[in-house]
Amino acid sequence: MAKDPLAEAGLHFDELNKLRVLEPDVSQKTVELKEECEDFVDKIGQFQKIVGGLIELVDELAKEAETEKMKAIGARNLLKSVEKQREAQQQQLQALIVEKKMQLERYSIVLEQNQTIVL
């Protein structure tokens, strides 16, 4: 079988009988690889859009969580404030009770003294 002098020189004819530097099967594989790369790039673009949406959603949820956290901290601080106010009020009422008991004792003593004078 005689060797093709063009093939030995690295020149080939494609299916349209155009002269090519690459072998037809190498050229076909190159085209297939190019198409696969384009598909891959498209899929990467879709993936980036999906991931971008996911990141936005997570950021939104993080902001909502932070807002709820701040509300909870505010409610806890308000509760502590109310508790301290109640303690202060309780101490004031206990002091008032002690004062009224002392006043009652003075009145009781004065009453006893007045009763002994009258008798």
From TrEMBL:
A matching Pfam family: IFT20
Claim: Coiled coil is one of the keywords in the record: yes
Subcellular location(s) per record: Cell projection, Cilium
Main location: other
Coiled coil: 72-99
Cellular compartments per GO CC: centrosome; ciliary basal body; ciliary base; cytoplasm; intraciliary transport particle; neuron projection; non-motile cilium
One GO term of the biological process aspect: cilium assembly
Keywords: Cell projection, Coiled coil
Name of the protein this chain belongs to: Intraflagellar transport protein 20 homolog
Species per Swiss-Prot/TrEMBL record: Sinocyclocheilus grahami (Dianchi golden-line fish)
Lineage: Eukaryota, Metazoa, Chordata, Craniata, Vertebrata
